[in-house]
Design goal:
6 helices, 55% helix, mainly alpha, single chain, 2 strands, two-stranded antiparallel ribbon
Amino acid sequence: MNTRFDSDEWITAQGEYILVSNLETSHLINILKMFIKQPLRTISMLIKDIERLDDHTRGDVWSKNNRNGVKKESIREITKMKPEECVEYALTSTLGVTMLKELNTRGVDVKNIITFMKEGE
């Protein structure tokens, strides 16, 4: 079961798909800040993606390492994650890694920015 975190595109609140490479640097930093400071928002995005799937989706239940699955069981697995697990999942997902790499190519000291976000502004 794939979610927005398995892609190199950001989905806006209006449902528009934008390649990470087309987002402004400040927007990328703000998205990463959301991943780090608001892990419950990551859970909400995952649930939203799962609930949009066809009810007859077959396969394994979503987990951090296996994203095939059934809605109810998948949502149960997602909501079992601890806040630090949500942060790690978001940052190591395809989407997170793509954003971190893009920021790095733009000259952002990603490690320092993440430290700021984790320790406070």
